[in-house]
User: Fold this.
Amino acid sequence: MKKSIKRLPKGHRVKAAIRLPGSKSITHRALLIASLAQGESIITNALAAEDTLLTAEALRRLGTTIAWGETALLVRPPARRWTQPDGPLFLGNSGTSMRLLLSLAAAGQGRFIFDGSPRLRQRPVGPVLDALAALGAACRCLKEPGYPPIEIVSRGLNGGDVLVDARQSSQFLSSLLIASPCAKGEVRISWPEQVASLPYVTLTIEMMAQAGIQFTRPAGNQIAIPAPQPYLAASCTVEGDCSSASYFWAAAALTGGDITTSPLSPESRQGDLRLLEVLEEMGCGICWGEEGVTVRGPDRLRPVDLDMNAMPDMVPTVAVLAAFARGRSRIRNVAHLRVKESDRLHALATELGRFAVPVTEQPDGLVIEGGAARPPEGAIEVYNDHRIAMAFALMGLCLEGVAIDGAEAVAKSFPTFWELFEQLEQGSGGGAWGQSPA
Assistant:
């Protein structure tokens, strides 16, 4: 699907209020924790997008009952972990689903095969498999070592000490953490000091604690989880998705506008909330209210020099903003973006080049000379990557002739994105999903 973006009138400052979908990261984790709990759980405002639906379907095939309602879903764990699937669990291009579900399956008994799209077969899972093998699961890569498709044969996880290399993805670590309370004895997990997207490990640990899991922290890079211990069934509400909010924050930044996003709290543990600090550095005003946050764009964006290891999914958003910030911006320490849904560093450098933005692609980042972007030569290719599609839509608010080829990729995390974005293009909204505040 090709989506043409309507440029805003010169000098137009967007003003809108956006009701966000539920957090993808929290929804994934809530589904897994509820499937491991004792009794039924209710999850309100869960995200129903391609990735989370893949996780839910895999859990259903493993025996979990999942009933989606209008505003909430019910999760009932199976009597036995797990039902033997009658074929591979296909996970599309959802790296989160693949990595988190590997450990969950190994915490039960049976033989499980995990597979996905051609791109998912290029995304690494080796550190998870090494840790699971150390805890007694038999793991086998059916094609390339360290990559899907994967076969796991398990009789449950043993206790013991494991080292998880999470430099490429914090999901390797979160996967082991979520499954560890189901082991036959205490699990002590340690990791090298550098962890990609470290705030999402904190998010995982806090969600486990809210579900009744006890643990200790012998060191900053080590956690000890007594096992077995049960997850408690509970009701929870998923807060708004900060990653989804980022595109609307950036729209305010680009237009000098005023956009409010909710439901969000300054206490959120989502790592991408830290983008607000970057926007302040670029000149934006940030104001928290009772239900969410308002971003007000500046008259002129300032360039930045950033280590974005803790929030790599925000690199496409920042790269687009940097294209309009007069001066040189640097984005560093995000080499792991090359194993996301696309090689995001190469994709960003290539597509920014269509706008005549000078970009230097480095092994772990980008150097962007901003302030002179021009209408693009040809449609924007998104490499089947939702974040590339949503980030480059922002370019169309300021420049003529922007068309997104492969616009349907947004369904991976934000199915209603284009509906809301069109309200920005029109300069007005409708109802809770984009109404301009009074």
